[in-house]
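Retro notes (design track)

What went well: tokenization of the new backbones is finally stable.
What didn't: we kept losing track of which sequence belonged to which structure.
Fix going forward: every design gets posted as structure first, then sequence, in one message. First example under the new rule, 241 residues:
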């Protein structure tokens, strides 16, 4: 959609919660042809809120869970903000706006993004409508890229990604495969893991294996509850912050 936007006289920018050096790193790794801007202090979202353009959510919890899946230092002095899309004209007329509202339905904002085709179609319609159309309303029901997996499936993938010792995020790191690819790889670890328990019950004292299984289940449940609790601390980014 980038060339269509530029043909219409626009430009595209990506704003990241990460520092600029990580935004540059992602720009190079993904071979993007638009500018990436690091905004760890959330200056851009605060300006958007101040102008009543768009108010994003930010996760204020600690980043220990994200750090488990990243081979770089996670730096979010004010938390990481949830995704949003904003298109405005030079006269500040809003052509399109969408924000991720963290909920059970999108796994606390982890998934469900509007497709590029849907966003461009809405922008194009707003442009064709002219200034008399006024500002576009928030898009609360966009066409999303993919529906979220059931929560239990998502949790199972996180556990397998941590090799069953603890839940591990699918955080981006340069050189790693895409999240969907890593998700499938992690989930394929479950059959061998379950088979080991079956073999254990067949060959070893069942009481020992049962105690081990109960201990593992308790450990994982505690880890998941603690992890999800930290990820659930979501607040809107206000101009006064």
């Amino acid at each position: 959609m980038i060339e269509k936007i530029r043909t219409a006289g626009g430009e595209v920018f990506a704003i990241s919660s990460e520092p600029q050096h990580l935004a540059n790193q992602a720009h190079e790794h993904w071979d993007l042809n638009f500018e990436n801007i690091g905004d760890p202090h959330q200056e851009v979202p605060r300006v958007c809120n101040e102008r009543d353009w768009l108010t994003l959510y930010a996760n204020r919890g600690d980043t220990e869970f994200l750090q488990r899946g990243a081979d770089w230092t996670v730096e979010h002095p004010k938390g990481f903000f949830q995704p949003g899309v904003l298109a405005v004209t030079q006269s500040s007329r809003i052509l399109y706006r969408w924000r991720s509202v963290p909920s059970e339905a999108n796994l606390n904002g982890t998934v469900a993004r509007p497709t590029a085709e849907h966003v461009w179609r809405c922008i194009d319609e707003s442009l064709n409508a002219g200034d008399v159309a006024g500002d576009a309303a928030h898009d609360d029901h966009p066409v999303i890229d993919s529906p979220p997996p059931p929560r239990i499936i998502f949790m199972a993938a996180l556990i397998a990604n941590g090799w069953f010792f603890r839940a591990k995020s699918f955080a981006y790191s340069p050189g790693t495969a895409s999240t969907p690819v890593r998700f499938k790889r992690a989930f394929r670890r479950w059959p061998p893991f379950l088979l080991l328990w079956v073999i254990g019950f067949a060959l070893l004292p069942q009481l020992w294996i049962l105690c081990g299984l109960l201990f593992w289940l308790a450990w994982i449940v505690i880890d998941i509850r603690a992890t999800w609790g930290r990820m659930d601390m979501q607040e809107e980014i206000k101009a006064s912050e």
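Added context from the reviewer: The chain has one domain: 1-241.
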